[in-house]
Amino acid sequence: MIQVIELSKNYGDVKALKSVSFEVKKGEILGLLGPNGAGKTTTYRILTGYLKPTSGTIKVKDFDINEDMVEIKKMIGYLPESAPIYKDMLVYDYLNYIADIRNVSQSNKFSHLKELSDICRLKNVMHKTIDELSKGYRQRVGIAHALMGDPDILVLDEPTSGLDPNQIVETRDIIRRIGKEKTIIFSTHILSEAEATCDRVVIMDEGEIKANDTIGNLKKSTNEDNFETIFRMITKGS
Amino acid sequence: MKNIKHIFKKEFNSYFVTPIAYIVISLFLLVIGWLFFSTFFLNRQASMMRFFSLLPITFSFIVPAITMKLFSEELNLGTYEILLTLPVKFSDIILGKFLAAISFIVIMLLPTLIYAISISFVGELDWGPVIGGYIGAILLGAAFSAIGIFASSLTRNQVIAFITGMTICFALTLLTDFLLYFIPNTFIGFFQYFSANFHFQNISRGLIDSRDILYFITISFIALYGANLVMKEKK
Fold this sequence. Notes:
The complex is a heterodimer of chains A (238) and B (235).
Chain A: E1 2-11, E2 14-24, E3 29-33, H1 40-47, E4 55-60, E5 63-64, H2 69-75, E6 76-79, H3 91-101, H4 106-119, H5 135-147, E7 153-157, H6 165-179, E8 183-187, H7 191-197, E9 200-205, E10 208-213, H8 215-222, H9 227-234
Parallel strand pairs in A: 3-8, 3-9, 6-7, 7-8
Antiparallel strand pairs in A: 1-2, 1-4, 4-5, 9-10
Chain B: H1 2-15, H2 20-43, H3 49-67, H4 69-77, H5 79-85, H6 90-109, H7 113-122, H8 127-154, H9 158-179, H10 185-192, H11 196-204, H12 210-234
Helix pairs in contact in B: 1-6, 2-3, 3-8, 3-9, 3-11, 4-5, 4-8, 6-8, 6-12, 8-9, 8-11, 8-12, 11-12
């Protein structure tokens, strides 16, 4: 479904990504993990068309990011870190706007909006401005934004960051529910969350891939049962 | 084309959800109304000429205030990332925002039609230059909007975007007036061609010349193309 091929990105002299390659299969939930500054967000931003790579490419189905970015964007729902959304808009107006941009047909639009408000539990805040919402609700609006138009692929950059424990559980539930039908790449610093949710993990550090396997295989190969210890070993945290 | 419409609608509506739009419109009507009518009765002429002659200088600071938020705010709040990852082209984003700014200017100019209608009651108003003036005002507003959008794409700080846009618009407005003091008369004709004020005054006299229209279209195109390049460079 997604092939990341020798992807590199430089910000001036800083090499944020150093020839990164990995694949994501259809229907898989992939955890892209790593400490801050590992290159996860840069990878997402290139995949979603916000940044251009210095070299290398990403292929989604048969489309290449360097040639068919608009087609790729149609297939991807993206939740950036901390869900930046237009604060002066009503939740309904915002989702309606995204539905229009994502070409949701007028006949399906209302039922789709209703469906997303149910999935993300936004029913009670649809008439409020985004500015009035708590961080948890804003995150839900961001997830609804990512789900709009029923894209095949979801890219979620730290969807539970900054949320309280109840909101984390709720957001995780939403991801699990929608993950049954979609290809998902997501990142998190809560390793138990990755362990519970991901089919496979790619662990990055300093712009390079340090591990790419299922958590079960990583446990076997390192003879270590605690994923947090494995993560620290791989990223030189211990 | 559909996406241009959606972005236009969102941007146009967003002008009116905060008090800024109403403040800008009020400020414009107050300033131009006072400057126009304070000398209107002294001239003893039923003419809008003075009103239109004030527009380039007034637009130089009003239009950048209208456009300053269009990209700067997105860059500052991080919504720029949302915008660029939606399945839309750069050109759709820029044109949507550009049309929203022009429409705002049209809304801002609408109440000034009352001036023309009032004047037509007190004297014989020649409607030719009035219609020309309004066409020129929209073209001038479009060119200055494009410049404002370019300035806004350069920075996440709205104040810097405003000052940059205003400086370019002022320079284009006052170009020939300034240059009169510094260059020989033989070159004035050449430099005049770059002045927004010169072309606007031609149209507001009721002379719709393709060269003047082409000037405003060219300025708009260059500025919007510049914004497009800046956006691509940010990647």
